[in-house]
Amino acid sequence: MLKKLFGSPVGKKLVTGITGLGLVGFVLLHMVGNLALFSGDQAYNEYSEFLTGMGPLFYLVEAGLLAFFVFHIVTGIKIAIGKRRARPVGYDRYQSAGAPSRQTAASRSMIVTGMILLVFTVFHLISFKFGPGGPGNDDVAYLVAYDGGEPIRNMALLVRERFASPLYAFGYTAVMLLLILHLRHGVWSALQSLGAMKPSISGLVYTVGGLLGAGTGIGFLFVPMALYFNLI
Amino acid sequence: MQIKLKVWRQKGPRDTGRFEEYVVPDANPHMSFLELLDVLNEQLIMEGKDPVEFDHDCREGICGSCGVVVDGVAHGPQQRTACCQLHMRHYKDGDSIVVEPWRASAFPIIRDLVVDRSAFDRIIGAGGYVSVSTGAAPDANAIPIPKVVVDEAFDYAACIGCGACVAACPNASASLFTAAKISHLALLPQGQAERAQRVVNMVDQMEAEGFGDCSNHAECEAVCPKGISIKGIATMRREYIKATLSQ
């Protein structure tokens, strides 16, 4: 039954929709968490320590996120392959018929923006989570102790160092613009996939989806831009 | 008015096919797009060439037989219109028009602009009907159904099976066509007995025919000559999930 539910054309959209919405929730929390740097390095480091200090719960969430990523990516690739199989010969000329179509550059490039986001995520984990001072990479230079307490990871120092480089600051910015594009179609599409759409609220959900995507992507840009231009 | 046409020509399913360019020197603005092709064909016959094959029947927008991609849009630039009801008054003297067949591996080309849409028949054959006895015509009138429900069911029943949804979908998905029949019958009391089995069988058949997966581009709704809403696709998904979970 589960194989039928998740392997069918309806099920594939169900999987991408549920995992997609879960990942949207994650990036939204991640974005808000990043803004802790504007309250100072200590607040940022303590927030980071609070998350990693949760122990088993933290690992459980990480495992869940990994599973969501894997299912989202595998199903997305399956859909993209199926698309090529379903139309091996394309049109000489092709264009959208306009509203009520929701076909945009964002909706057509989901596989491309998704793949770039995947490569970015791996690189991002290597440079931050598993970077200096992280798991398996103990470096006393990236530890800091506040008010005579136990030394904790100086995440703020690492972030400041990384975003001093234009490659990091602007590369990150470029990928976040692609995230906005991915969420532009993704949020609305996920809700339609879950069968949760009424025509009367479709336009509203589409707009809110776009704003949520744009808000998340732009929110991620405050930290790298503020650091690169020495504003904090 | 003079119209230049770039038309896909293909002798048979195994021919590789190619575009050929033609000029119709004296098209009439009152002509429909299919009548323009008729004029082109008379011209080609006079020149001793093979006429362009295209599907058509009623020519009044209700049968679903016609359908070609006109300048990259299924059924052409006018929404809620099959290409038989697209008139040349929407074009200017000297315009060029590209004409292509529906493109999908589930709709193999038979010749020129004619494709084999029997995959749609097999999807309907998998469950798009009511086989239990629901009485004769007077019994239908004896079952009260709220007007709003009847109207919604009718909006889905308006599907003429032309295949424009598949042709326009970037993924060549048949979701709108399949969803229209599922949503139509799910709304009516006569459709209830086979409701769960219907959605599972029709979705399975849609997949088996080699149509792509839906990516919610909603392009199908924009080209549908009957304006069938993608709300039906959301309904199909809910029906499928419920049916699978209850099996």
CATH architecture of chain A: Up-down Bundle
Give me the secondary-structure category of chain B: alpha+beta
Overall body shape of chain B: elongated
Oligomerization: heterodimer
Helix content of chain B: 25-40%
Order of helices and strands of chain A: HHHHHHEEHHH
Order of adjacent strands in the largest pleated sheet of chain B: 2-1-5-3-4
Q: What distance separates the N and C termini of chain B? A: 61 Å
Structural class of chain A: mainly alpha
Q: Can you count the helices of chain A?
A: 9
Our estimate of the beta-strand percent of chain A is under 5%
Query: Which two chains touch over the largest interface?
Result: A-B, 47 and 54 residues
Return Rg of chain A in Å: 20 Å
> CATH topology of chain A, which one?
3 helical TM bundles of succinate and fumarate reductases
Overall pLDDT confidence of chain B: 96
CATH architecture of the largest domain in chain B: Orthogonal Bundle
Q: How large is the radius of gyration of chain B?
A: 20 Å
Q: Work out the helix count of chain B.
A: 9
Distance between the termini of chain A: 54 Å
Kindly describe this structure.
The complex is a heterodimer of chains A (232) and B (247). Helices cover 71% and strands 2% of the residues of chain A. Chain A is mainly α and 232 residues long. Chain A has one domain: 3 helical TM bundles of succinate and fumarate reductases (Up-down Bundle). In chain A, strand 1 and strand 2 form a beta hairpin. In chain A, helix 2 crosses helix 4. The longest helix of chain A is centred in the first third of the chain and has 31 residues. In chain A, 31% of the residues are buried. The mean pLDDT of chain A is 92. Chain B is of the alpha+beta class. In chain B, the strands form 2 sheets. Chain B has a 5-stranded mixed sheet. The mean pLDDT of chain B is 96. Chain B folds into 2 domains: 109 residues, Beta-grasp domain (Ubiquitin-like (UB roll)); 130 residues, Alpha-helical ferredoxin (Fumarate Reductase Iron-sulfur Protein, Chain B, domain 2, Orthogonal Bundle), CATH 1.10.1060.10. Chain B is elongated and about 60 Å long. The termini of chain B are far apart. The relative contact order of chain B is 0.14. At the A-B interface, helix 2, helix 4 and helix 8 of A face strand 4, helix 7, helix 8 and helix 9 of B.
